Amino acid sequence: MIEIRFHGRGGQGTVVASKILADALAKEGNYVQAYPEFGVERRGAPVYAFIRIDNKPIYDKSRIYTPDHVVVVDPTLVEAIDVTVGLKPGGIIIINSDRRPEEFNFPDLYRVVTINATEIAVKHGLGTLAAPIVNTAIVGATIKILNLCRLESLIEAIKEGVPIKPQDNILAAKEAYEKAQSLL
Amino acid sequence: MKEKRRKAQKIIFNSEKEMPIAPMSLGSMTFNLTGAWRNIRPVIDLDNCLQCGICWKFCPDTAILIENEYPVIDYDYCKGCGLCAEECPAKCITMEEEIR
Amino acid sequence: MKKVIMGNHALSYGAMLARVQVISAYPITPQTQVVELLSEMCASKVLDAQFIKVESEHSAMAALIGASLAGARTFTATSAQGLALMHELLHWASGARLPIVMGNINRAMAPGWSIWSDQNDSLSQRDTGWMQFYCANNQEVLDSVIQAFKVAERFYIPAMIILDAFSLSHTYEVVDIPDQALVDTYLPPFQPAFRLTPDDPHAFGGLTSPDHYFELRYKLQKAMEKVPEAVEETGREYEKLFGRYLGTVDGYCLDDADIILVTSGTAGSTARVAVDNLRKKGKAIGNLRIRLFRPFPFKIVRQLLRRAKKVAVVDRNISYGHHGIFYQEIKSALYGFSSIPVFGFIAGLGGRDITPETFEEIVDYTLSHETVDSEIIWIGVKK
Lengths: 184, 100, 383
What we know:
The complex is a heterotrimer.
Chain A: E1 2-9, H1 14-27, E2 31-36, E3 46-54, E4 69-72, H2 77-80, E5 92-96, E6 111-115, H3 117-123, H4 135-145, H5 151-161, H6 166-183
Parallel strand pairs in A: 1-4, 4-5, 5-6
Antiparallel strand pairs in A: 1-3, 2-3
Helix pairs in contact in A: 1-4, 1-5, 3-4, 3-6, 4-6, 5-6
Chain B: E1 40-44, H1 54-58, E2 64-67, E3 70-73, H2 83-87, E4 93-97
Antiparallel strand pairs in B: 1-4, 2-3
Chain C: E1 2-6, H1 7-17, E2 22-25, H2 32-43, E3 50-53, H3 57-69, E4 74-79, H4 80-95, E5 101-106, H5 120-123, E6 131-134, H6 138-155, E7 159-164, E8 172-176, H7 180-186, H8 210-242, E9 249-252, E10 259-263, H9 265-280, E11 285-290, E12 292-294, H10 298-305, E13 310-315, H11 325-334, E14 342-346, H12 356-367, E15 377-378
Parallel strand pairs in C: 2-3, 2-4, 4-5, 5-7, 6-7, 10-11, 10-13, 13-14, 14-15
Antiparallel strand pairs in C: 1-8, 6-12, 9-11
Helix pairs in contact in C: 1-2, 1-6, 3-4, 6-8, 9-12
């Protein structure tokens, strides 16, 4: 079982990101369980989304406390909160950022991968620099970095599950996926 | 003239098996003759009746029927509320003491 | 067709596949998405149903009582305070023998204001004459709606489908959405034996004298008593068509279990993980998840628990001044049949998480105690 925690801010589509990822993984026959932070979401406030992935039914309905990996959708959160809480040693921290991984100051037991999802999203007309819609780009990078599923499955999931600008979202996901490939 | 009164009958179920599963028509109005509650009775002076149908419309118990274009009171169900007498524009309905 | 959907939408899809004809509901967190999706389905004609907007849950149930009596298949959903506001009409629906199906998202009762899960909202309605199904995953939520209509319409008893706030209501899981044609063969249109119609006028729900009332209640109870068997039967029928059995209980590793955990809802799913963990450590533990709470499946519960050496009941609820509510039920089921010690634990009130470790703590306690010296063992209270 793989457990991933997403960090974002209310209104950025962090929950949608986990849902798209779940859709893509389900297409390949995986069992998935995706859920938002239990409670009320406020625009701008730090929010969480979680996903469990397994090749057999997932009976554990408790919350995720020790994720295998984390995905940071909003780079400003790295300073605002501790995104490594409970993160298992060896876990990968994927950050949407224009900075290089070594510029972040995380303990050595984690690996940091950065992807400039904001730039990719804006390039494809998804939001603005101030308010980019990065969820499809960040998921595109995530499936490659964590080797979760094929790009085609994600594209299918976006086609079915993203009602606004599906084509631009697909291009953003694809570009992020390919950029991530070059990072590995 | 005092018409012959029907007697209210009780619905009797001999066992639960004869009863419906839901509370429906357990005390059918066919047998529950609420005219027995009445202590004043409406009497219509048909000579002065305008055939307007207002008494028929107002009767809360649908105890006034129209027969041959004139109102007829169904004393099996009339509770004697007096609404018809109150509303009659020709004032041809009077409430009289019920004699049993 | 497999789809990743949240538990709330599993309720909506279940209602859609059951071809409900009248829906009336008032939104409340964490139920909102149930009726949001249903109203969209009605607007887009995916579902040929009347959606009646109302100003309260009390009115929602009142609207369904009228619609159901007129012969429509009816559905609503609510949660916590909304369910409490419906209370009067819950009695009315069951007393009038109307097979209304309702989703209830388990949410703790206020105050303190809470939107998180516990079972006190639905369990406060246990004596209203409604069937209660507690679900452990989104697939079961969807399947239960369809099965509940079948059982409800056979016995003229309304049914509640109950799921935990957030850990099901807002959690996305892979759900197999059955084929409509197949659902239609399982659940034909509702053809009530009695209904409100000008063709055959009746007075419904009128004054009922002591001569009749007693028998009506007797008949409701007698019908309730037939439900557990009917749930198993319709569950097997469902399995034949859709490959998933829907029983009154869901047992896991019971055959050789020394200690059996008795659970419900999502906690009953998490408990399986604990059972696996504990078995790896050589502890013979089993899990009996109660799916049908009303009517209570006494027979099968007795049968399955008698083999154990100890029973540990885990309640996400409490009857103040008494004990955990499932604990009461289990003790009453075993009374006179078995003298094994039954321990009662209370955990997870107001959305406090119930994890596999919670169950391991419960099992540790049960293993280390031979007799019950406290009727409530609190798990996780900060001391």
